[in-house]
Amino acid sequence: MYVVNSQSDTLCTFRCACGKNKGNKRYNGDYRTPEGIFQIASIENSKYWRYKGGVRNVYGPYFIRLKVPKWRGIGIHGTNAPKTIGTRCTKGCIRLRNKDVIQLVKHVEVGTKVHILSDYPRR
Questions:
Q1: What is the structure's pLDDT at 122?
Q2: Considering the entire predicted model, what is its pTM?
């Protein structure tokens, strides 16, 4: 993941995890990350959220919710499984190390554009 300013300068980079399956999201449960240009809808404190079955801290300290037409609950968030970073393992969200999502929220705000590209080449 690259954080880029309006002059196209790279401010920071982060390793991430994305949808288990390649390609653009087509239907609920397809384990794909939606591709396109979206905006940040909200930045939420997710420290105390619980996942199905009561598992705590699955989303790390922040959930950066994206406005993604047709899909709810897509965002960029931390994790309680840092070893998964760098893999394709999510249900569609973009997962960062907790320390990285803390750094990311310092650079973004509601309305910030997020470009999710297919198999973006490494720099």
A1: 52
A2: 0.91
Residue pair 63/46 in contact (Cβ under 8 Å)? The answer is yes
Residue 40 is part of which domain span? 2-116
Closest CA to 33 of 78, 86, 1, 75: 75
Examine the residue annotation and report whether 77 is marked as an active-site residue of this protein.
yes
For 42-92, write each residue's pLDDT tens digit: 999 999 898 887 888 899 999 999 999 999 899 999 999 999 999 999 999
Catalytic residue among 12, 16, 89, 93: 93
Instruction: Output phi, psi for 50, to 5 deg.
Output: -120, 140
Whether 107 sits among the annotated catalytic residues: the reply is no
The token pair that represents 14 in the structure block: 């982060």
Q: Which of 77, 89, 107, 115 is catalytic?
A: 77
**CATH code assigned at 66:** 2.40.440.10
